[in-house]
């Protein structure tokens, strides 16, 4: 693994790609362009989320293998994902929703009266989504009349599978199976076979999903949920076989061509689990944007704040100014929110987690810096 890489740049690009994709539905501008081009097989936002999971599988496998204990691995993962998630949830319930209610009705009575009552109360929104498994998307009728009605933050659906991947990887580390370099490739091949079988015979996917729910792995009856787990396993497999992989331009071109052809003629679900992870990791190794990491990693903040920001813009009828105005306003506000989330919260918590790790191990900061020489901050 080279010292210079563009993982942070790619994560930022993927976050903005999700925002771009959501702009069509949230602004009422029709369907995602890739969805139309691929005849309903894939959206730009979905492909970007799969890219997130490929990078996550690659980097977090590296993190798990170098952590001195499962406790430290769990602390680092919690420090990365939990503060941002809870911040956006609390701000949504106790700042955004009251502000919208005040602007629309002139008083807080309707909102505060709905906090504890009703089928989609604010309390239910916090409580039912507390464990990262998002089962309630609306809060009362907050965005009931938007082009994409109801959902307050549809982007949060992917955090449940992400946390599940962390837990499974932590267990593999605890039991020592992650040290076997074939763990990732074997899990990827088995899950790839299951995914293809479930696409051909959906009843098989439903049956397996019901069994897996007993182990708190949810959503496997849905192709998109299976896809993000598959993308994570692809990243994990690539890290474990990183010494054998070669990042060649002609192979990246073949991967890109395979994605384009299967988008047009069909069979995208067969090709992407192999072609897309290679292309993503090739770009991470070859693109000359390693300096982006010095700015900070705004990608997570952009991802979790963009959806409610776009819903608010749609509520304000900004889409009437046209697609570019809606997209531009969404991007500017989301980048500002992502930067604020990084500098005011995420970076501080990550620094605390590292300091706690250094003190608990009695390791000097210089030694820690040497141990972490090759990778940017994990997603």
Give structural notes.
The chain crosses the membrane at residues 47-65, 85-106, 156-175, 182-200, 220-239, 251-278, 323-345. Keywords: Acyltransferase, Membrane, Transferase, Transmembrane, Transmembrane helix. Residues 7-335 form the Acyltransferase domain. With 379 residues, this protein is mainly alpha-helical. The protein has one domain (7-371). Helix content is 69%, strand content 0%. The chain is built from 15 helices and no strands. It has helices at residues 7-27, 33-37, 44-66, 70-105, 109-114, 122-128, 159-174, 183-200, 202-213, 223-240, 249-265, 268-286, 299-315, 323-361, 365-371. The radius of gyration is 21 Å and the shape is globular.
Q: How large is the count of helical segments? A: 15
Into how many domains do the coordinates divide? 1
In helices, the fraction of residues equals 55-70%
Order of helices and strands: HHHHHHHHHHHHHHH
Transmembrane segments: 47-65, 85-106, 156-175, 182-200, 220-239, 251-278, 323-345
GO molecular function, one term: acyltransferase activity, transferring groups other than amino-acyl groups
Protein name: Acyltransferase 3
InterPro entries: Acyl_transf_3_dom (IPR002656)
In short:
This is Acyltransferase 3. The protein is 69% helix and 0% strand.
Secondary structure elements and pairings:
Blueprint: H1 7-27, H2 33-37, H3 44-66, H4 70-105, H5 109-114, H6 122-128, H7 159-174, H8 183-200, H9 202-213, H10 223-240, H11 249-265, H12 268-286, H13 299-315, H14 323-361, H15 365-371
């Amino acid at each position: 693994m080279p010292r210079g890489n563009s993982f942070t740049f790619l994560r930022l690009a993927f976050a903005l790609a999700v925002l771009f994709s959501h702009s069509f539905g949230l602004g009422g501008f029709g369907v995602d362009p890739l969805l139309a081009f691929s005849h309903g097989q894939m959206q730009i936002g979905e492909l970007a989320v799969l890219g997130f999971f490929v990078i996550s599988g690659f980097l977090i496998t590296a993190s798990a293998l170098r952590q001195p204990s499962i406790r430290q691995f769990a602390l680092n993962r919690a420090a990365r994902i939990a503060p941002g998630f809870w911040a956006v949830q609390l701000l949504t319930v106790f700042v955004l929703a009251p502000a919208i209610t005040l602007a629309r009705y002139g008083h807080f009575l309707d909102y505060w009266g709905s906090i504890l009552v009703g089928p989609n109360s604010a309390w239910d929104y916090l409580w039912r989504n507390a464990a990262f498994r998002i089962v309630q998307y609306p809060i009362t009728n907050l965005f009931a009349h938007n082009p994409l009605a109801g959902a307050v933050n549809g982007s949060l659906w992917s955090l449940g599978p992400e946390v599940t991947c962390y837990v499974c990887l932590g267990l593999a580390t605890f039991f020592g199976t992650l040290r076997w370099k074939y763990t990732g490739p074997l899990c990827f091949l088995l899950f790839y076979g299951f995914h293809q079988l479930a696409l051909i015979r959906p009843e098989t996917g439903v049956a397996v999903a019901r069994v897996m729910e007993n182990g708190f792995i949810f959503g496997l009856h849905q192709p998109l949920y299976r896809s993000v787990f598959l993308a994570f396993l692809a990243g994990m497999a690539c890290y474990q076989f990183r010494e054998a992989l070669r990042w060649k331009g002609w192979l990246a071109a073949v991967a890109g061509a395979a994605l384009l052809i299967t988008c047009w003629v069909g069979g995208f679900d067969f090709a992407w689990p192999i072609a897309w992870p290679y292309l993503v990791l090739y770009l991470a190794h070859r693109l000359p944007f390693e300096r982006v990491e010095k700015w900070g990693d705004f990608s997570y903040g952009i991802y979790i704040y963009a959806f409610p920001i776009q819903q608010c813009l749609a509520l304000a009828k900004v889409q009437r100014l046209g697609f570019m105005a809606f997209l531009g306003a969404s991007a500017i506000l989301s980048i500002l929110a992502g930067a604020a989330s990084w500098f005011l919260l995420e970076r501080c918590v990550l620094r605390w987690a590292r300091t706690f790790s250094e003190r608990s191990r009695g390791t000097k900061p210089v030694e820690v810096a040497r141990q972490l020489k090759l990778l940017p901050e994990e997603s």
